[in-house]
Amino acid sequence: MRPALRKGVLVLHLLSVGGWIGIDVLVGALVLAGTLGDPATAGLAYRALGSFVVVPMLTAALASLATGLLLGLGTKWGLARYWWVLVKLGLTLVLTVLIVVALRPGMPEVVLHGEQLAAGLVPEGDVSELVFPPIVSLVVLSLATVLSVYKPWGRTRR
Ligand code: HEM
Fold first, then answer.
1. What is the mean pLDDT of each run of 10 residues along the chain (158 residues)?
2. Atom of ligand 1 at shortest distance to CA of 141?
3. Which residues pair with 155 in a beta bridge?
4. pLDDT for position 93
5. CB-ligand 1 contact for 145 (6 Å cutoff)
6. What's the sign of the alpha-carbon dihedral 54, 11, 13, 25?
7. Cα separation of 145 and 17, whole Å?
């Protein structure tokens, strides 16, 4: 990859990753508002969370993955040549799959929960497990950032 192209892809990589982290922080704030706010605020927070979050989050995840793959394939780092890249690839794949199989299917229930709260009803469902996705994702993305900067563990056997 020519230096100018590499820098351009690296900028896109950092913007995608930064966007993903920002969306996770927003999810954390919405979960907090849903848990601690009065029923009207909580209802709004859960409806926003259930309606608008998954698509931008998945887009940012796929963009991070795609730009990361391009950087790996197009530079000396490779995809399976250095542990820090290989581990980041694994972590990013796991998080991306979790968005699709664990987060997305629960979103209609989160919207319903918000609608019931906003209508002054006592919701039947339990959405307390929503605290985990932003915590897990932010911890993993922070770890990936640390790996990217320190580049530990050297080369793999390949
Ligand atoms: C979503 C989690 C990720 C985060 C937080 C992340 C973060 C970063 C950061 C901060 C850098 C800049 C490091 C520097 O310039 O010293 C970087 C570069 C890089 N990332 Fe990622 N990344 C992620 C995912 C990936 C994935 C999935 C791959 C590969 C499949 C990848 C491959 C690379 C490569 C090869 C570079 C070096 C680019 C270069 O200097 O030419 N990243 N990443």
1. 97 98 98 97 98 98 98 97 98 98 97 97 94 98 98 92
2. 5
3. 82
4. 98
5. yes
6. negative
7. 9
pLDDT of residue 64: 98
Structure tokens at 95: 């998080």
Residue 56's pLDDT is: 98
Q: What share of the chain is helix, strand, coil (3-state, %, to 5)?
A: 80, 0, 20
Q: Where are the domains of the chain?
A: 3-150
Ligand 1 pocket check for 23: Cβ under 6 Å: no
15 Cβ closer than 6 Å to some ligand 1 atom: no
d(CA 136, CA 21): 11
The reply to whether ligand 1 has any atom less than 6 angstroms from the CB of 18 is: no
**Amino acid letter at 122?**
V
Relative to the CA of 78, which ligand 1 atom is closest?
35
CA 65 – CA 56 distance, rounded (Å): 14
pLDDT value, residue 65: 98
Sign of the dihedral defined by the CA atoms of residues 83, 84, 89, 95, in that order: positive
| pLDDT for 48 | 98
